[in-house]
Amino acid sequence: MNGSCAKDREAECQPLEKTSSVQELKYFTRRWVLAYLMCVVRVCQTALRQCIGMAIVCMTNKETDVVTPLTSLNDTGVGNVTEVYDDTNKQTRSLGSEFRWSSSFEGHVLVAYYYGFLLTIMIAGYVDRSLGSVRTIAVGMAGGGVVNLLTPLLTRQHPYLLVTLRVLAGCANGLIDPAMHTLWSNWAPVSERGQLTAVEYAGNGFGGIMTFLVSALLCKIPVDRGWPFVFYFYGVVSLLFTLLWLLLARNSPETHPAITKTELSFIITGRSKLSDTKTKTPWLKIMSSGAVWAIIVAHASFSWVYSWILAYLPMYMKDVLHYTVAQNGVLSSLPFLGKLVMGILAGYLADMLLRRRFSIALVRKSFQMAGSIGCALPLLVISFLSHKERVLAVALLITSVSLQNLTGVAYRINSLDIAPRYAGFLMSLTSTIACALTLTAPYVTSALLVNKTREEWQTVLYIVTAVSVLGGVVFLACAKGDVQAWAVDNEITIHVEAGSTTDTIFPSDKNVVENGSSMSLSEPLCEQTDRVDCPGKSDTLV
What we know:
The protein is mainly α. The protein folds into 3 domains: 24-271, Up-down Bundle (Growth Hormone, Chain: A); 281-484, Growth Hormone, Chain: A (Up-down Bundle), CATH 1.20.1250; 492-523, no CATH class. The protein is built from 19 helices and 6 strands. The strands form 2 sheets. Strands 1-2-3 form a 3-stranded antiparallel β-sheet, with no helix packed on it. The chain is globular, with a radius of gyration of 25 Å. The two termini are 30 Å apart. 49% of the residues are buried. The model is unreliable at 1-24, 62-96, 491-525, 527-533 and 535-542 (pLDDT under 50).
């Protein structure tokens, strides 16, 4: 059989649910409802991280030149309230920026979130095991919501309280990611893992679009200078959704009170996993592997560039392209719409190439280079443009952010190719290093943007371009597509309950040794490694 189904076993090879009369309701099953809920979690997480970029523009924005300052200004922005008489409406109204901060201080505000995120992600696994995944995610969302609600009040007390709050926001959000992976290990059948996680990660794109667009509208509210509503809105949404999350989500299908027997059986038989036998992690071999460092550098490159775009895109729109707050919000959201669409297309295209027998290494390297260079070249061209060519600049920004998401089917899932046994560990390792290096982006930018002139922005864009290219070049040179020698699982044990059937795993007869109620295999099954080119499998992790 060699891993594929014989013709006389075609019916047996079909996934369990496909023989059910409720197959047409697949997208309303409990696992898919969980995917939709996790998509909203990603939206909330993205909003809590990203809203500060637009909020700073609103907090330091000047709407008019016809102003008379009533108080003096300082580097941390205390004071700076401006009022003018509106002859049309016969009333006095506030205009200008409530805060005027130096580039250095803005850098502290923008980087603070990542300090908190880095601190928490290292202990999130322990919290997850203690509280359970559902409660851990709830704590992260609720904590972020409370921090947002407190931000306007405490920022007006002292600017450095804003820095503290951003650290706490990062701490709260850092709890979410590991818990999400744990949930999918319990809920996602191998045959649907790509589809389910694609729905979850779509929340990042939706969150990016919504945050910039809605934040710009909230800033225009003629009450309390508008910008506090950016924090109030996302804080309230996060808290309300936390209640819905606790009501509907469960840690495993076995504990869900409303799941059907058909779906429960489908999930249990489809979520194959490696042996639970504990082995010593080959630290030295992992850290000396060129394939691992290819993923680390590519991940760090992506995170550095993407975090820079999240933090500084609205500021660039204001300082160089001279867009108003309302225009800024709409235009800053467009690149994330392109990112969302490109991520979905990349997944289907990569899957198609693998099924046409292109090698995994070739597909991964091709998409990484296309994403890295495709992101870098538009940014390089933008560095030479002024506000007179701002329409072209916006189009190039959309192209850059969209093409960068091609790397989602490259470095992001390459750990599953080279070390399926240690894929979770490698993701934590690369995420930690990438997050630590991302902390340098605001400091480098704020050090160069002294007066925020076009020439200073040009220098910054050169650096962003170089970082993007570096990730692609290193991945091209060092990445691999096959399981590395140090990651080979010499023996896998699959426990099969008496009377049960499995519709996703059909090992070769010559590799199976009957041993009571278990089977010992000489090497990992294709389906167990999450590879997208397995026979009968068409899902791609996006």
